[in-house]
Every structure is written in structure tokens, then in C-alpha cells.
Predict the structure.
Amino acid sequence: MANQAMTVTSASASFYQAKSRFPGILSWVLSTDHKRIGILYLVSLLSFFLVGMSLGFLMRLELIAPGRQIVGPQTYNALFTLHGVIMIFLFVIPGLSASFGNFFLPLLIGARDVAFPRLNLLSWWIFVTGAFLAVLAMFTGSGPPDTGWTFYAPYSIRTGTNVVLATFAVFVLGFSSILTGLNFITTVHRLRAPGMTWFRMPLFVWGLYATAWTQVLATPIIGINLLLIIAERLFGIGVFDPAKGGDPILYQHLFWIYSHPAVYIMILPAMGVISEILPVFARRTIFGYKFIAYSSVAIASVGALVWGHHMFVSGQSYAAGTIFSLLTMLVAIPSAVKVFNWVATLYKGSIVLEAPLLFAMSFIFLFTIGGLSGMMLGVLSFDVHVHDTYFVLGHFHYVIFGGMGMAFFAALHYWFPKMFGRMYNKKLANVAWLVIFIGFNTLYMPFLVLGWEGMPRRYYDYLPQYHTPHLISTIGSWILITGIFIMLGNLARSLAKGERAPANPWGGTTLEWTVPSPPPVENFKEIPHIDRGPYDYTGAASK
Amino acid sequence: MSATNGLAVGHQRDYAGAKLGMWVFLFTELMLFGGMFILYAVYRTTHADDFHYAAGELDTLVGTMNTLILLTSSLTMALSIAAMRTARKTVSIVFLVLTIALGIWFMVNKYFEWGAKFEHGLYPNSELLLQRAKGEILFFGLYFTMTGLHGLHVFIGVVVLSVVAIKMANRPYDHIAFAGEGRDDLRGARLALLDDSGRRLWASEPMDDSVKEVSVRVKYLPVPRRIRREDFAVLENAGLYWHLVDIIWIFLFPLFYLIT
Amino acid sequence: MNDNDTERERAGFGVYVLSWVALLILTATTVTVAGMHLGKLSVFTAVIIAAVKATVVLFFFMHLKYEKPFFRTMVCIALGALVIFIGLTFTDILYR
């Protein structure tokens, strides 16, 4: 038995070298080690991101000038539907939780694994199944859905395209999200190292915890909503069909009751990553730890109350519109608290300008732009003019891509040495960042302008007056994609050729930096005892 | 335990954690049905009279009987767990089987109930139904979807409880294995059972070279001291699921059958 | 392992049977009340009685009474979320 594996004797053998019951690739896809599962997710997510990015690239190519460029209108409808479905359900929502959360949650709290390791593996397999079904929906039957990723009734009930398969795929993906949330809640409650009280937990953990509750409570609602769409298409039950007395606006209610909290599923772990990175690269403790921790809970809670702001012009009552508008104003407050605390953390810190910090600062800047445009959209009277225009697209690409996306890139660079035991080329990483930042703004700033000037979203063609911003935007997409390829190329090459990384290359103070890079399979030789907060830069903890 | 030469880190056996995880799962089920309760609340409000009229088609007697069946099954479920805690394994399994039987009875009732509806031409998208008032169409759309999803959960519960019953029948036992490596370890040795004073109660024949590994499987009688939390954690968690299925029916029953 | 011992001793056979009897009585009540003409109040009473029944199942059959207070908080949060979803949806439905 022991003869088959590599002869590793020291306790610092990494988890890559751990012996498994299964040979080859099976030792990965049947592994219950949270670190391997985290990497499985990371690879899956990056792959789907690239697919979604390619779809976006094609859309921008089509929109470079008025008139048809490369595809016809039906195909264009399919492109934006798939771009949305893939980016949202196969990249952003699983996002930081499934990848970095899985890898680092146990490490950050001093545990050996999550509470339910086998459930964790099942979660990934369900994710893969859902993704497979989504791909199947693209290429089989009557073709990919053309409803937009929102699948609004009654069109989604009537259209001939593959709505049943696509919505079922999303339903399956929802299960994956739910199981991850369930696992993380139990892990945070049960497996913290001795001495790690709630307020000694790292802030990424707070973000994951708040996200987990949202995943658990909100996802089933879209689950049942999509099941009902399937029941409508297959059995004609009538709950969303106006011909039978159904109310399509109720579909929108059920849809957004999940999909608004979903954006907080997307952003809360991302904000957690920023809170992890800033103290390290400012060489000081985070400003206002408790406020940031509470704000995560506040965002998750208040964020469940604002979904109607997606429906201001849907036909819902003015009363509802007013109430949702007011609540939307409230939800900005905890986010603003975080931004202020982050800036205060940087103020008069000893700044170390590295790629993780560059991406983190980009997050703060871009998320603020996105957030402010969101506040504008939350004002009912303003939204009436810009609903379903490029203004909305600009808003959410700034918050999702400029927010979660930048945080994802930041986490990739921050935790790369820990996960892979190598350091990337730092100069190249900074160059990639710059190209990405320039490309991003060139691509998306015109959206806000276009929307303001009345360009509708999900339109295959447009009037000549919108040409210049669209052209600039498409060029921006090329710059952005170039930057992304430079970044990923750098990281990929460093996997094999990068310098070997020490346990703590950045001088961090959280627990993952106390174990070797990469960590051994059991994480800690001995479970640590915690007697201080996570960002203690005053004493021996810092480099 | 040694963890350097394998992924055998060992899954933590955490009874309280398993229970927490089960409760969290129950919340997801609550929200799943909750979405449909939202729809019911809305359509009941906007089509109150149609709902009232359509509910007359449902058989209150069958509905009440099904309610009593599920309530009793919750009782037998709880009694099964209570019996296991006091080490009355046979009693526990009997109550568990009763619970399963009641669940099956519920599904049989449902089968006949729905069958009668179909025979009368009342099913989603049927010609007969589409001629009725909008509110009635919605009532039956919700009726079939909600009781259908609930019935599916009863079915899943019955399957899960059956699996648990089989597992309980085999528990509790311990399996201790130790392997001697190399021939010299075991040759000439015997396996023996000794009491506290060292008196030999039983011994095997001396082992020869054909014996490569010795493992001992111990089946012990369930007495309260020996029943560990982990042994009935599965039973308890299955019970939690079953009770939730009961709770959902507690709300479905009056909302569909008693609004006449 | 040892935190399980902090659970108070749970309900025994007796409490379960009593709970079951209570549930039967409540069921009989709700069926009877349904026969009376209460108009708008009928939904309200039906839901209230159902809620009481659900509480009995939760507290005794599901041991919520004997679990750590945190479990009760969690149940309230989940139920609260559902109530809020219904409530805010009704700000639309009622005022169209």
C-alpha cells in the first residue's frame, strides 16, 4: 500500500502529494479534501468565465457598428441569454465562495476540513451536472433560449426554444449553491479553532457566513419559480399565464426575491477578500472590524427587502414601487460603511504596491462607481427613464465585474502562492492589471453614457447616433481581453516555472499563512489556539 | 491519527453539527414550498370567490383522513426515536415501520384522490378546466402543483425511512480491524477472549501461514450506555424531515380543503 | 461530543402522545370552524390554527423546545423571511 505512493515522510508533504484510494484523475474528482474541491471549482469557474467572455466578445463585435456584422437577430438573442446565464450561474454566483471559500474557510478558522466533506464533493458534482445540462440546452432541440437570463413569463412559456432544459439546469445549479451554503454555515458554527470567537474570525469568513444564509434562504425561491415555468410549459398549470388568469408579474416577484439577494451572494465574499487584502498591504489592522462584520449581515438582511426595484416599470403598484425605492436607499448604507472603513485602513498605512492591492483598490473605485449608479437607479422617477437601457448594463457590469471580478483577480494573486507553492511574475502581473483597468473602463463607461442617451439593452441593432460610444466600447473589450490573457498567461506559466513560495510571502497574519505553501492535507499539524484578532500587526505576528 | 500518508484525515463525527445541517436543509424546504404559498396567498386574495367555489370539488373527508394519517405518523416517528434512546431497538423499528406504512397509506389516498379528479376531467390544461372561471383554473393549478410536490416529498421520506429502518436493524455494532503485516506476526498466535481477571473464555486455533489478517466484528446488544449519539443521529435527522413534511400538510389541508 | 449532554432530557412517550392528542383536537377544531360562516375571518382562523399545530410539531416532535435557543432564532429568521416576502409582494397586489 505505502509502496505505491511517493515516499513522503515529512509532515510538510503537500496535499497534492497525498495518497488517495483512487488513481490519477479520480484522486481529484472523487476527493473530499476541501482544497482539491476548491481547485476543481476554480478550474471549472475559470473555464466558464472564458466561455462567457467569448460570448461577450462576440456580442461586442456585432455591436461595433449599426447593421448586421457577424450574426443575425435570433442568434444575438441567444448570445446575450447565454452570456448572462453562464456568467451569472456558472461563474459569479458560485464564484469566490466555491473556489476560494472552499479552499480557505477551514484554513482561516483553524479546521481540518469543512463540516460535511462528502456533501462538498457532491456540491461540485451537482455543479458540473448543471453546467452540462446548460450546455446541452445550447446545442440540442430547438436551440438555446432567447428569453434573456431572466426567463420572464409569458414569453418564456410561449417561445419554442429550449427553456425547459435551461431552467432545469439552473434549478440543478441552485442545489449546488444551497449545499455549499449549508456546509459553510455548519462549518463556521462547529469547527472554529479553540479561542476563535465570532469577533476573532477573519472578515472573509464573515462574508462567507452571511452569503451562506442568503444562499440557503433565497435560492429555493428561484428553484420553485423555475419548476413552475417548467410545469407551465409541460402541463399548462396557468399560474403565470394571463390566458388562464395567471399574473406574469408574480413570476417577476418570485424571480427577483432570489435574484436580488443573489447579487449579494456575488459581492459579499468579494468584499470579504478586500478586507483580507488591505491590512496585509497597508501593514496595519483593518479599520472598524466590527462595523465591517456587522455590515455583511446588514447587507444580507436588508438586501432581501429590495427586489422590487427591478420591477419599477413592470406594472406593479406605485405603493410597492415607493416602498422598494426607499428600502433600496437603505441597503446602500452598510456597503458605504465598508468603503469608508477600507479607505480608512489605507490612510497613513505603509502601502506595499503589489498586484493583490492594485486589484483591491480597483475594486473600491469601480464598485463605488457601480454602487452610485445603482443608487441613481433606485430612485423610481429616474429609473423610469433608464430602465432596460445600457445604463443598467453599465451599473451591473461595474458592480459585478468591477466588483466581484476584480476581487476574484485580487484573490487569485493574493492566494496563488499559498495554493500552488509558487510566486507569479510580479512585474507582468502589474502590467496585466493596468491593461485590464484601462480596458474595463473603456468598455463600460460608454455604457453609462449610452443608457443615459436612451440606447435600449438586448437590442441587436441601433440608430447611427449611438455609433461612437459602441465603437469605443468594443475597442475597450479588446483591450480588456488582452489584459486578461496576459494575467492568466502569467499565472499559468508561474504554476510550472515560478519561484517557490515560502509559507508567508506577504507577511499576512491570518492562519493560512502559518502553514506551508501549499498546505499539507490535514492543514495544521496541531489545531492552533487563538488568543487575538485576525489582523494584529502590532507585534510578532507581522513580518 | 496518521495523516501524512493518505487522504485519510478522518471525517469528524459531529452529532450536533449533523443536526444543525439538517435544520438548515429544512429551511430550504420551507422556502421552496414558501414560494408557492406566496402564489396561493396572492391568488386567494384576488380570486376569493372562485377559490371558494372550486374547493367544493375536493373531498374534505379524504383530506381530513390524510391529515390524521400524517399527524399519527409524526407520533410514531417520535416514538420510534424515543424507543431507540431507551435502547428498545425492536420497539423502535416497529414504530418506524408503522410510520412508513402510514406514509404509504397517505400516498395511496392521494393516488385515488387524484385519479378521481382526472376521471372527472379535472387536470391542468384539460378542456373541462379551461372552460371554468380563471380563479378556478388557478386553484386547481396550485392544488395539483402543491400537493404534487408535497406527495413527492412524502415518497422521498418513505424511501429514506425505509433505508434508515434497514440500517437500524443492523446497528449498533462495532467493527474493529487490525492487520498483522508479514508472516512472522501471526504464525503460532491465537485469537482469545479474556475476562477482567485474565481467564480465557474462548480461544481460536493457532494461526498458520495461511492467515494474513485478523479482524473482529463485534455485535453488541443495545443497552442505553452503548447507544451513541451517532447511532441514532440518522434516525433523528430523518425524523426531522418527516415532521416538516407533516407541517407542510398541516398548512395545505385547511387552505385547499376547508375554504368551502 | 460532550455538548450533547447539555441538552435537557427530552420529551418522553407521554409528552408525544399528549401532543398528538392536542393535534387531533386542533384538527377537529379547524374542520368545525370551517363549517361556520366567518367570511373574511375564515382564512385568518385557519392559518392561526395551522400555525398552532405546526408549533406543537416543532416544539415537541422536533424538540425545538429542548434545543439551544439559537435553533429557535434560526426558525424565526427563516419564517420571518417568508413573511416579509409575502408582505412586500402584497404591497403590490393590494394596491394595483
